[in-house]
Amino acid sequence: MSKRPLATYMDDGKFYYVPEVFDCSSAKAAEINGFQMIMLSSSDFSCSSTGIPDLKLLSVEEYVGITERLTAMTDMHLFIDADEGFGRPLHTYHGCRKLAKAGADSILITDCAEGGKPGLTSIDEAVYRFRAARDGMAGTDCLLLARCDHSIDEDFEEFVERCNRYLEAGADMICPLEVNRSKRYGGKQAAAKKIAEHVKAKFWYPNLKEGEKANDIRALLHHGYKFTGIHYSFRAAMLAMLDAGRRVFESGTNDYISTAYDHTGYKFYYSPMAAFLRDGKWVQRESMYSAEPSQALAVRIEQRFIGPTDRFGPDDVR
């Protein structure tokens, strides 16, 4: 059974917190933790997959590859952060067409200047970009998330004009990024409310910041805010690898890893591969095609990599 189109969530009365992931392991962790949607972070993806900072060097094909891998492994809805859309509008059309066909549920495109140049593109040029993105998604259920990076505090009227023009060009949602830095209207949440008074749309609330509470963000639901991104996956992974690596290097043993699992409430007998075996899907599937299921590779791998004390949460009891 195919998953529900993302558009059907727009008026369901719920607010969704969307972890920004960078690969299949971070997506699997989000799935186990109970999240329903994920976003591929362009910066985290760039660093983790190439070892190069987010310098706009990733190709369409690299985005398509990770999109196909993520949509093949999980039914969570997938947002793709595609930055400025890969180049001129024709590049945007081509990229969005391929990403939508690869299974992306929503693609974020910004109005920043092309090629990493400072500033924003003009309103008219941005409209061409968003129109090209919308045309590229034609015939699919993929939604266009238009990010407006124009300063709210410096020129609110132009910000509103931009957002409304982007909606006319085919955007399904607006991400008003500059609410992150707004001070003129009483802070981030107050600015978000003011925007909703002038732009009638569904919104992606810019990333949940330190100190912001979930209930406060959820209160913006009746103003049209449906989603917010949460950047924790890549930071958490790097922190854990640095911390564990330092202790392993200094001690000359691998003992810290075993004890650290007990401190976190998560425990893997041998390998995080257990996270991908725990639902039994691959074992059941291969057993269907084997004359001796007990000798199937997936069965033997499960026996080797899943231990009796494995825990993937407080309620995960085997």
From TrEMBL:
<dbReference type="InterPro" id="IPR039556">
    <property type="entry name" value="ICL/PEPM"/>
</dbReference>
<dbReference type="GO" id="GO:0016833">
    <property type="term" value="F:oxo-acid-lyase activity"/>
</dbReference>
<protein>
    <submittedName>
        <fullName>Isocitrate lyase/PEP mutase family protein</fullName>
    </submittedName>
</protein>
<dbReference type="InterPro" id="IPR040442">
    <property type="entry name" value="Pyrv_kinase-like_dom_sf"/>
</dbReference>
<dbReference type="Pfam" id="PF13714">
    <property type="entry name" value="PEP_mutase"/>
</dbReference>
<keyword id="KW-0456">Lyase</keyword>
<dbReference type="InterPro" id="IPR015813">
    <property type="entry name" value="Pyrv/PenolPyrv_kinase-like_dom"/>
</dbReference>
